[in-house]
Amino acid sequence: MKILIINGPNLNILGKREKEYYGTENFNDYFTRLQFKLKDVELSHVQSNSEGDIITSIQEASTNFHAIVLNAAGYTHTSIAIADAVKAISIPVIEVHISNVYAREEFRHKSYIAPYAKGVITGFGLKSYELAILSFLELDKND
């Protein structure tokens, strides 16, 4: 199975920002460990601080991957365009968040993406990505 992880704005500075929410590990180190742990899955990842780049990644992934793990970060709560991109593709998307968005500011409680996602995983730290991937593998086994 080929899965693309798409990370949105400010996730390129994980390990440096708001450690109380996001921890101390940077994403590249975590991704290397994840690839080692899930050797049977072909994992790729992209990160962008630009809404348009995220939309392009979603659209292109629909022809090259079986599934997407999407952490749109702050765009989750503001981007109808990213939600429309998720709605428009035929491969499943799981929305993930490192922090528990429901334990944070009220504006973070609304996701424009969630109605079009296969599911949402929030609040398990970087483990949220692994949980999303494992759920795709379980879904694939049951199909």
Automatic annotation (TrEMBL):
Top-rank taxon, per record: Bacteria
Function summary: Catalyzes a trans-dehydration via an enolate intermediate.
Source species of the chain: Mesonia maritima
HAMAP family reported for this sequence: AroQ
Catalytic machinery residues: 22 (proton acceptor), 97 (proton donor)
Keyword Amino-acid biosynthesis tagged: yes
Keywords from the UniProt entry: Amino-acid biosynthesis, Aromatic amino acid biosynthesis, Lyase
Protein name as it appears in the record: 3-dehydroquinate dehydratase
Enzyme type, top EC level: lyase
InterPro entries tied to this protein: DHquinase_II (IPR001874), DHquinase_II_CS (IPR018509), DHquinase_II_sf (IPR036441)
Residues marked Transition state stabilizer (site): 17
Pfam families for this protein: DHquinase_II
Catalytic activity entry: 3-dehydroquinate = 3-dehydroshikimate + H2O
Pathway per the UniProt entry: Metabolic intermediate biosynthesis; chorismate biosynthesis; chorismate from D-erythrose 4-phosphate and phosphoenolpyruvate: step 3/7
Example GO molecular function: 3-dehydroquinate dehydratase activity
The gene coding this protein: aroQ
Gene3D superfamilies: Dehydroquinase, class II
